[in-house]
Write a structure and sequence with these properties.
This protein is an alpha+beta fold and about 140 residues long. The chain has three helices and five strands; from the N terminus they run H-E-E-E-H-E-E-H. Helices cover about 30% and strands about 20% of the residues. Strand 1 and strand 2 form a beta hairpin. The chain binds adenosine monophosphate. Adenosine monophosphate binds next to loops.
Length: about 140
């Protein structure tokens, strides 16, 4: 399946390119949370982080870091959120892995989540062990 992002890379859809190398492409999000909100994607189409080869991910994250610094500098942000949605259950809408690089400003009202699920000590111990065991 060809996603809208592959069409962007192919130049078939208007967009605002920020960066490109052999492996990675970056462009402004069409519906930015704040000015400068940038999406960073592998040129090859992988559905989500699970399917993306480690060597591609390694390069992607170094580009995400560079772009985080560049976006922050450009828009004078107070901070940067780096966000990935994997699967529709987590809010993914475009099934081509993408890192959101989101500039943040004090009091911008885009609240990052802070959970309030109460876990017992027993549950926490069990979860930590089970997650570690599932790697
Ligand atoms: P997600 O929910 O993580 O899959 O987010 C998909 C993101 O892609 C959203 O933030 C959209 O605004 C963005 N998006 C969708 N179509 C385009 C497009 N043609 N150009 C730029 N960004 C887009």
């Amino acid at each position: 399946m060809t996603t809208v992002f592959s069409k962007i890379i192919a130049g078939e859809i208007p967009h605002y390119k920020v960066y490109e190398d052999d492996v990675v492409y970056a462009f402004l999000d069409a519906h930015p949370v704040n000015r400068g909100h940038t999406l960073v994607i592998p040129k090859e189409e992988y559905r989500d982080i699970y399917e993306t080869p480690d060597e591609i991910l390694s390069h992607l994250i170094t580009v995400v870091k560079k772009l985080s610094i560049a976006v922050k500098k450009t828009v004078g942000a107070d901070g940067i959120n780096i966000h990935v949605n994997n699967e529709s259950g987590a809010g993914q809408e475009v099934f081509h892995l993408h890192f959101h690089v989101i500039p943040r400003f004090e009091g911008d009202g885009f609240e990052h989540w802070h959970g309030n699920v109460v876990e017992s000590e027993e549950e926490k111990t069990s979860l930590a062990e089970k997650i570690g065991g599932n790697i």
